[in-house]
UniProtKB/TrEMBL annotation:
Lineage: superkingdom: Bacteria
Signal peptide: 1-21
SMART domains in the cross-refs: TPR (SM00028)
The entry's keywords: Signal
Descriptive protein name: Tetratricopeptide repeat protein
Matching Pfam families: TPR_16 (PF13432)
The keyword Membrane is assigned to this record: no
Source organism of the structure: Sphingobacterium zhuxiongii
Organism lineage: Bacteria, Pseudomonadati, Bacteroidota, Sphingobacteriia, Sphingobacteriales
UniProt xrefs under InterPro entries: TPR-like_helical_dom_sf, TPR_rpt
Amino acid sequence: MTNSKLFLSLLLAGAVGTVSAQSLKDAKAAMEAEQYDKAKTMLQQLVEKKAKDGENYFYLGQIHLVNDKIDSAAYVFQQGVTNAPKEKLNVVGLGIVELEKGNVSGAESKFTEATTGLGKKDYLPLYYIGRAYIDAPKPDYKKAVEYLTKAKEGAPKDALVPTALGDAYAGLRESSPAYVAYRDALTLNDKLLAPKIGQAIISRRAQAYDVVLEQLTTLAGENPEYGPIYRELAETYYLSSKKAPEDQYREINQKAVENYKKYLSLTGDASLDAKVRYADFLVYSGNYDELKTVSQELSNQAGVDAKVFRYLGYISFLQDKDYAKSLEYMTQLFSKVDTSRLIARDFLIKGMSEIINGNDAQGNADLKVAISKQSEDENLDEEVAETAFAKLQDGEEEVARKLFAFPASNPESDYYYDSNYYMGTGEYGVGSKLVSVPEAEATPEVVAAKFQEAKPHLESAVKSLDLVAKATKQEVVDKYKVNALYYKGLSELALDNVIHDAENAKGLFVGSFTELLSAIAASTNLTDAQKAYAADAHNYLGYFAYLKGDAAKAKTHFAESLKINAEDPFAKQMVDVLNQK
């Protein structure tokens, strides 16, 4: 949740003043406590009363960044440059805007402009550039360390700088220097809570969630009125829920929502912007039931952020299963907001909606963008596969096949083989139904038409199942090889048109069923269904041998089938036929 963290360790600690307080110090203290609406009111008053004070514009612009209002932030920063051209911080602000938009070169140009000619003790531009690289949509922690190290040289006694350095080192997964930096910050100012929180969440990147939760809970007990701790608790509970057993997921995830609500109550922010940030957290944490309630409330608010279409689109897809409506809302979102404000999950939902609505090319393009934009805490490729599997379980087979096609096309995906297996069996299901024309309707014309309709599905099945059957990873071999060979053979049997034109069968399926028998013989943990596959394989191979006039081979296969199932009707019938010759 990058935007919600922008100021966790931004400013000097101190008592938070009342809304009527007009000092910049009070506004900064409100920001440090993440009381953004309160700080915004103060800063707007300060800008009006002290129009030539450039710092006021900078901090007001930062509030707009927290609320994801990039254009408003840019406007305020530009006003700061116009009214106080000597204040470098607003130039930094314009650079941060470019960084938020993904324009790295544009950001660097502004940062260079802001830092050219700085005095030795003029460290704040360096500090805020360092923080910008930490909090950017795509963080550059090495750049952050570079700028913050320079800032530290100019301000060895400002605890904010080592706090930010701790955040940067934590981002680089360098736990020891991160811990030392936080410790240095506390040495300079032991009342700061940001470095204490930083120390607590170092272990979060190592997924040691129990440790983090324990430390944050202790901090919350010692500082029960400090809101940001509860936001970090909310995020940690969410991440913990993702790794929890399925029966514990909902309980743990609900704790995330409860702590975020506690955070909102302590920051005293009931503004529309705060509600939008809460909705963003619900998106982030996957709490779609709560999101539905919040999004419906937001949709009735005048002047609400266009992100409301995000929430409505997600709900239409995930809760209502109204994929046409979901695509409609997501298309509105994409048309109304700057592309820099679109998150990875937006492309995920829109991509899946596009595919389900028949726009495969656009959908796959969107999903590729989603994967490229995902954070280290996200695995959107997994979500596509899991969504596809859920649709399969819900009986939405066509939807499932279309979604499985995305991870199935990426050999680097952890779900490459799973997706190819399910897509292959699904395509076989479609093709086999098409070629199974009832005898009463099986005119040559109907059979030919149905075969042509089934052919691309069956060929797709063979392609996907062949990839799975040829896998060398032991876990894939153990999980899928026998089944993949069986359904591949059935797909080839249908492609050979054995049902309607046995005399002209080419034996497309012979290789698969022969390999299947070898795989079954080599397996030790077979289900009853898989053991039955051997009987089927012998029957199909025996029948093909019979068609080609090899009676001895046919008898051998049917005899093997009857060893597995002495009452197999097809094998018994074929043995009778062969014995009569």
